Amino acid sequence: MANNYALDMYTLTAAPLESVPLQPQRIAVYYSDVGTLLALEQMGFDYVSVSRNDLNAGALADYDVFLNQGLRWSDLNAAGQASFGAWYGSGGNYIALPDRGRAIDFAVSAGIADVDYGYIDGNAIVALDYTPDDPLVAGYLPSGYGFVYRSMWFTAWDGMEVAARIADGDFVTGGYWPGWRTSGAAEMPVVLHDTDGTSDVTFIGVDATFRNHPEGSFRLIANAIYNGLE
User: Fold this and answer.
1) Which domains does the chain have, with CATH numbers?
2) Which of 132, 164, 178, 218 has the most neighbouring CB atoms within 10 Å?
């Protein structure tokens, strides 16, 4: 491991008191971009792709994490919605990727978060500022970059923790985003998370896995998965 990943390795006689043992997570994915699946595979995560019918049949009961990219709350019938509520209430961890805000709207409709957002109509690279010591951005420097396509920034987030924001000033560093200077997106959050008992909800507003290209953002998803461990 030291050679493959450039790690400094130490032998411990006991685990630190505040440490959390890493356990394999059972991950269910609803996706609209195969790049999300490829990103998970590149990071070494096992996952199962689930359909609307699977979720309506209560499939989430078998998983620890639900990564949603594009499923609407209205796509679930009454049984599926009740199943999701029971799953989340019993400690399930929900991660939303943007795709026109559907997965974020899903969480709001399900009653597990309360946010508003602005929509990005573009294809651009933006400068980001990360919140020091936030677990969602572990491994990042204080500032970096993200890709935006069918993305959003948050305008209200009801007490959720802010892990990353769009930078101030000339935050578009390349690409296409008409009206970005007057959009109001500067300094606004693009990665949020919250904990409710043993359940976690994470919103990633940038297109972190778009067609498997923005590898620098993949870590956001890995951090969100690990942050759900208790």
Assistant:
1) 22-227 (3.40.50.880)
2) 164
